[in-house]
Specification:
This protein has helices at about 15-25, 40-65, 65-85, 95-115, 120-130, 140-145, 150-195, 205-230, 230-240, 255-260, 270-275, 280-285, 290-300, 300-305, 320-335, 340-350, 350-355, 360-370, 375-385, 385-405. The protein is an all-alpha fold. The protein folds into 2 domains: about 1-200 and about 375-409, no CATH class; about 205-360, no CATH class. The longest helix has about 50 residues, at about 150-195. It holds the Pfam family DUF7118. Keywords: Coiled coil.
């Protein structure tokens, strides 16, 4: 019955399993009570905490000098790198003297424009000294790039903050996905444990018999109603029943209902109406006044008409909660009385006695357990395995919830 849910982190494999076992405090050789897909909660929580620490460190590093100051350094580094890349061939060795002069002038100007109070200025000065020679080589350009490393590190703080924020977003998304998956699993396990505690020896026939008797009677009555009465009357009944909350008919298409009310095809019942829809225009002309309009209105709704049945008038098994059955019984009595004989209406009235059974909930729970629990699931509950899975799933849910609700979130 319980569903195994998964997320992108289901493929984390051993890393997730290791993280979970390390945080759970169980013995190293103790089996994990949860399936593979749920083993990575502790690892994801650890990843989230690390991502938040990285984001905080990156933010503090930017705030040390200020975003605008670091942006100035970044622009200056990019300007210097462009000059070094552009002139490395033409301004070295016995290359173009004009290029050599232009390069030295532009590079010196880039350093002068920066200002001595800007962090990393010393790195630019050393880079300028590396290329301030009477003759330059590629190694001089390389030394200039190396000299710029401290300034480049400062400029990279902005990119690191962006990367850290993106990584934190991903970590929070992964943690939320796993938390959602665990919530679903906990719901399933709670339901499993609850059903496993039901009394499977309870006399469920005390509810099943009156419900089955009513269902059989109303199916037969509706089948006759559908077969014998004009289709417009059947759809009028369905339209009225569709307005009640506990009788789940889908309302008829308005255009079809309007057409049948205006031109009821000489009172043809629903089976005949569906048969007419297959006729050719010449054959249909013998049965309806306007074959073209009939075909245009009926054929598009064939599936709806074919599926009309007594199903919305029946009571499900296992049955709903007692209060729901009481409300539905009131609507069913009123609806069924519009087309069914009195003995069927009497069966509907008897549903109230079933809903008022003094042990209704115990019998209903037993019926649900019999319908939903497999033998293997019943054994999991009886052995305590399901309860162990539930406890561990709740622990991991708390781990993730605490990580997501960290003070920085």
């Amino acid at each position: 019955m319980a569903r195994d849910t998964a997320s992108d982190h289901d493929r984390t494999g051993a890393a997730g399993e290791s993280g979970a076992s390390g945080a759970s405090g169980t013995a190293a050789d103790a089996p994990d009570p949860l399936p593979d897909a749920d083993r990575d909660a502790d690892a994801i929580a650890a990843d989230l905490r690390e991502a938040r620490r990285r984001r905080d460190d990156a933010t503090a590093a930017v705030e040390e000098h200020g975003e605008s100051t670091l942006a100035t350094v970044r622009d200056a580094v990019e300007r210097a790198d462009r000059l070094l890349d552009r002139y490395v061939d033409s301004a070295t060795g016995t290359g173009d003297f004009q290029a050599y002069v232009e390069f030295q002038g532009e590079f010196a100007a880039a350093v002068d424009d920066l200002g001595e109070d800007v962090p990393g200025y010393d790195a630019f000065e050393r880079a300028n000294e590396a290329v301030d020679g009477r003759r330059l080589s590629e190694s001089d350009f390389e030394r200039a790039r190396e000299a710029l490393a401290p300034a480049r590190d400062l400029a990279d703080r902005l990119a690191e903050r962006e990367d850290a924020e993106a990584a934190l977003h991903d970590a929070e998304r992964d943690a939320q996905r796993r938390l959602d998956a665990l919530e679903e699993r906990i719901t399933d396990l709670e339901r499993l444990v609850e059903l496993g505690e039901a009394d499977l020896t309870a006399p469920t026939e005390e509810l099943r018999d009156p419900i089955a008797a009513y269902n059989d009677a109303v199916r037969d009555a509706f089948a006759e109603f559908r077969r014998e009465e004009p289709a417009c009357d059947v759809l009028a009944f369905v339209a009225e029943a569709a307005e009640t909350p506990f009788v789940g008919y889908a309302a008829p298409p308005p255009e079809l209902l309007a057409f049948l009310n205006a031109s009821p095809a000489d009172g043809a019942p629903l089976p005949d109406l569906l048969e007419y829809a297959d006729y050719s225009a010449s054959k249909l002309d013998h049965y309806v006044d306007d074959p073209g309009t009939f075909t245009a209105q009926v054929r598009p709704h064939r599936t709806y008409l074919e599926r009309l049945s007594a199903a919305p008038l029946t009571v499900d098994w296992p049955p709903p909660a007692a209060e729901t059955l009481r409300f539905k019984r009131e609507e069913l009595v009123s609806a069924v009385a519009k087309f069914a004989p009195e003995d069927v209406v009497a069966r509907a009235r008897e549903l109230r006695e079933a809903a008022d059974h003094p042990e209704y909930e115990r019998l209903r729970r037993a019926a649900e357990a019999a319908a939903e629990l497999s033998d293997a699931e019943a054994e999991r509950v009886a052995s305590g395995e399901a309860a162990a899975e539930l406890a561990e799933a709740r622990r991991r849910r708390k781990t993730l919830a605490d990580a997501l609700d960290g003070p920085e979130r």
